[in-house]
Write a structure and sequence with these properties.
The chain is an alpha+beta fold. It has one domain: Class II aldolase/adducin N-terminal domain (L-fuculose-1-phosphate Aldolase, 3-Layer(aba) Sandwich), CATH 3.40.225.10. It has 7 helices and 8 strands, in the order αββββαβααβαββαα. The structure holds zinc ion (ZN).
Length: 224
């Protein structure tokens, strides 16, 4: 990994954090993003407690896969064990975005999975979004619960906390986070309008199966 590539990873994390803030997926310094630098197996990750509106690329930390600081003068995000656990469990994942967005967090509070109710959902996220059991922020238990509930998919809820999305690039992980928030909003609106979630219909099972196959294919092509 050349210094240029490390700097590029830092720039991408900064840009993603700023996009998360402008899209109101996070507030202040909450949430976090990371990018796995493939050639060195190091990770560029949001620093702890730095407001995104005044964060620079120099604030972005570089850590190794055990969480040791390689580069940077701050502390890495408290959620770095969560990010590292996902990278260790999923070789296809190169980017992780953790948000506290409103509608996805509402489902995380309800501890309610989000079924595939719109077409783009399964192709991008892999299927129904499950809820990881509660764990204290920053704990190994939370990391373990999230890896288990995430499975092979690209999105998961963290009970009473927020959401997490991943992908082969930060752009795709961020897109997945925006999509998850949008579908969570649609789900809550449609549930309320229908008088309860039992009246909602998912997309047909054969379409879900076809779209899940497309998700796996695109994942192998590093486009999901
Ligand atoms: Zn969080």
């Amino acid at each position: 990994m050349t210094p240029d590539n490390t700097q590029d990873a830092k720039n991408q994390v900064l840009h993603t954090c700023q996009s998360m803030q402008s899209a109101e997926l996070v507030l202040g310094s909450s949430g976090n993003a990371s990018y796995r630098i493939e050639s060195t197996d190091q990770v560029a990750i949001t620093p702890s407690s730095v407001d995104y509106s005044c964060m620079s690329s120099e604030d972005v930390m570089i850590i190794d896969m055990e969480g040791n600081i390689v580069e940077g003068d701050r502390n890495p995000s408290i959620e770095h064990p969560l990010h590292l656990a996902i990278y260790k469990a999923r070789s296809d994942v190169k980017a992780v975005v953790h948000t506290h967005c409103v509608y996805a967090s509402a489902l995380a509070v309800l501890q309610e999975p989000l079924p595939p109710i719109v077409d783009e959902f399964v192709i991008r996220l892999g299927g129904q979004v499950e809820v990881a059991e509660y764990g204290m922020p920053g704990s190994e238990k939370l990391a373990e619960n999230v890896v288990k509930a995430l499975g092979p998919r690209n999105a998961v809820f963290l009970a009473n906390h927020g959401a997490l999305c991943c992908g082969p690039t930060l752009d795709i992980a961020l897109h997945n986070a925006l999509l998850l928030e949008r579908v969570a909003h649609i789900y809550l609106l449609a549930s309320a309008a229908a008088g309860g979630k039992k009246h909602l219909k998912t997309i047909p099972p054969d379409a879900i199966e076809t779209q899940a196959q497309m998700f796996e294919l695109m994942k192998r092509m590093k486009k999901r």
